[in-house]
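Build the 3D complex.
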Amino acid sequence: MNKRNAIRESFGDRSFLMAMYVILILIVISILYPLLHILAASFSNPQDVISGAVTIFPAHPTVMAYETLFKNSQVYTGYANTLFYTVVGTAVQVLFTVLLAYPLSRKEFVGRKVLMMAILLTMFFEGGLIPTYLIVKYLHILDTRWALIIPKALFVWQVIIAVTFFRTSIPDEIHESAQLDGCSDAGFLWRIVLPLSKPIIAVLILMYAVADWNSYFDALIYLTKSELFPLQLVLRNILVLSQVSQLSPSVAYQMRRLHGLSDLLKYALIVVSSAPILIFYPFVQKHFVKGMMIGSIKG
Amino acid sequence: MKTAAIQPAPATGRYATESKLSKNWKLMKKHWQYYALVLLPVAYLVIFKYLPIVGVQMAFRDYNVVDGMWGSKWIGLHYFVEFFKSPLFWDIFGNTLKISVTTMIFTFPTPILLALILNEVRDSFFNRFSQTITLAPHFISVVVMSGMIILFLDPKTGMLPKMMEWVGIEPVNFLASVASFKYVYAVSEVWQHVGYSAIIYLAALAGINPELYEAAKMDGASRFKKILHVDIPGISLVMTILLILQIGELTGVGFEKILLLQNPINQPGSEVIATYVYNVGLVNANYSFGTAIGLFNSVINFILLFAVNWISRRVSENSLW
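Done.
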């Protein structure tokens, strides 16, 4: 009786586990299929995209979409602008975050509790869209590159992550001995803390860079000059508003000639804009996960 | 006797505060560099976080360009009343609630299920592979995500209508429908963020005391029973906290994506408070009106956050504060 029971249970457990595997495989497919479909569509010809002959393999592989895309100056400018906003923006954000987070992690910094409170408050209270927009306007940085960098010079959540890291992983003993050797506070941050904090710097760079690369809304409200537009705003105009003729007159002409090229270009644009991050991220995935963990210890 | 005992106390107290003050002052002088370090970030916080908060008072003014946000004429609750009386109010308010509640019903349980499943699948290669794939869409930008939705749902060329046709269902133009907008939004949120949201539950599951599993095994619990009686109680605190936070953001959720997916046909079902602030307040430059609506939105979120936290503390003894 006992034995039969054990066998029956393990059979139940095995089928339960099997069901888990099946569900997980279905989940993975439902996420992977659309991604592969986009990739395949971007390498197809317009007729196949329209007729639905594309699955996760292109019916007649061609790089036509990419040829057309790379002839286009708007995509180039957008890419260059986004690189600038991402590199400069991330540098400023990491700098500001460290400058604020390190003193907040030190017990001998008088006023740190008040300052921390003031920072946490901004997570719950905010001025909202229009007052912030008007402040940016008063500072006369509308329609300049600064508008995409200064108004988001740091994110509160990332500051909290950094404070938690500094507090838990810089031993007090090092600080005491450095002070005895006459090391100043700023010198200690620069010479001792930063070299010890490479993991958190990596996490900050990743989080900020992805956010900067992907953001469009600041550009939408702060910029009107198209030569300053980041890639995401160019994408919005083409993908969402379908202003394909914006690409160039010759493309508009080709479009009439090749019905469906516009959809094809959209698939290629999605690939071109998202590939850098999607190819890069599996290698740094564990840092992302770590960053979330550090944040959630505190939260 | 009594008075004698009480007498010295205030003196010590005053002495203690004085010494604490001078001690603090000494510390501040010694560590003046900390204040130099935080100077720039604090200036940033004051200008870009606190000035706009003070600027919210323009919701009670009749903003004009000449007098600006600090000097325009004070008109009190005029714009709030205008918004409440406007025929659009209930539509917008209803849409906001419908979209966010639908989204929450979809996005709250799914990461928990994914984490529980991943936690069962011990095969390390398949486990890591599944995590990598499910996390990937999180890094797609909101613009590309919206572009994908529009492409996939295109009634003539989209992937989904083609699949529906293939299975034999009449294809629907989801984005041209007022009723289905909230489902399009909610399902795409699940697709994009389920892997990311599962991380925190996986961490909580990893932190469960292994002895509990041992004990469950000794008692002959099946895998399903083990999930029910060990896993789920083990992550219930995280579940409560995330649920409270989600409800607290109920009316502010996902405004960038809604704005991108909005079109004139689905607008009756997709105009929410936040997009209305953008469309009417910023695009049409009704700054005071827009700020008033935004403030109304924040107040609602605040009330919700406090209410849910209070209820949760009463019911489950888990709460944010």
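Chain B touches chain A through 89 residues (CB under 8 Å).
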